[in-house]
Amino acid sequence: MKIAVLGSGNGGSALAADWALSNHDVFMFDFEQFPDNIEAIRKNGGIRVEGEIEGFAKIEYAGFDIQHVVKQADLVFVVGPAYSTEKFAEACKPYLEKGQHIIVCPSACAGALVFKKSLGLSLKEQSYIISETSTLPYACRIIEPGHVKVFLKLKGGLYIAAQPSTYTQETLSLVKGVYPHIMAAKNVLQTTLQNSNPVIHPAVTLLNTALIERTDGNFMFYEEGVTGGVGNLMKAVDDEKIKVAEKLGVEVRPDPVIGVEQGYMTEDSYDHGYITAPGYKGIKAQPSLDHRYLNEDVGYTLNLIVDLAEHYEIDIPVIQAIIRIASVVTGKDFVHERRRTMESLGLEGTTLQKINESL
Prior knowledge:
The protein is α/β, with parallel strands linked by helices. The chain folds into 2 domains: 2-193, Rossmann fold (3-Layer(aba) Sandwich), CATH 3.40.50; 196-358, N-(1-d-carboxylethyl)-l-norvaline Dehydrogenase, domain 2 (Orthogonal Bundle), CATH 1.10.1040. The protein is built from 16 helices and 12 strands. It has helices at 10-21, 35-44, 66-70, 85-92, 111-118, 168-175, 188-194, 197-206, 209-215, 228-248, 255-262, 272-275, 292-295, 297-311, 317-330, 352-358, and strands spanning 2-6, 25-29, 46-51, 55-58, 61-63, 75-78, 101-104, 129-133, 138-144, 147-153, 159-163, 183-184. The strands form 2 sheets. An 8-stranded mixed β-sheet has the order 5-2-1-6-7-8-11-12, sandwiched between helices. A 4-stranded mixed β-sheet has the order 4-3-10-9. Strand 9 and strand 10 (147-153) form a beta hairpin. It is globular and about 50 Å long. The two termini are 28 Å apart. The model has no long low-confidence stretch (mean pLDDT 94).
């Protein structure tokens, strides 16, 4: 298959390498303001990958011509943080072809709905089959431009949903060869809410604010950043997220349980499980508070969860407190600058029954 990968960061590089080493023709695009990795991949003719995936992955094209990348692609992967989804959709909109499969990987907060809306489509429109995954299939970091290390390729606990969900099985059949453990989700609410990042990243970051600022992130985010008290906060966030999911009629499993299934962790606890997790071993903290661990996971996903909770009258005081504290310590108004809401997703005023019917 021809695989288009939009995004050349950690996840995009790992995904492109994996699919290329699985005997697919991979074409990569990124915006010109992010040239380093794309230029290195173009110059080298591919990506060096080490860790759980090893080898040199030949990339057919790496550059800034998005038309060349998405033209006649069997799968278009959109790989980036939540704030990149609209930009990728707008960039490729003139060149997408009817019936193409697009996968926002990971969902990064209702990615399929955001991508669809950015194309100017209604929820009912089926010109393209747009899906999302619950998380990135890899724990990975770029070592240097054109060289990525994959700490872990998920062993399970990975979900995918199309929008509408009637196309989920069709999408699933296209990715099973590379992701044999991937499972169908009920709908995109499940994939969005099953994401672990908003449970982990804000809690660990906020309770290690002084250490991040003092050391520029020179410590191990999980091995040193998680303690019993930090674990208690993560559990409280997870409990509230699960409560919202239950109200919406989708199953979201506790994060440590999913972590064990994925292969990140060997123990399903909120403290020791993360501290000793082989999949998180060696991952350093972010260099500053101005990072996607707050900008994305608070500004987008936690705010969407709050918006859903307010709409359906669910009490989630801990998540609300995290958003307020993150606003104070960063000087950003996460409380009012909600990047994802039911209104922005086209779900405002929708009953629970209609949401599940439309998704």
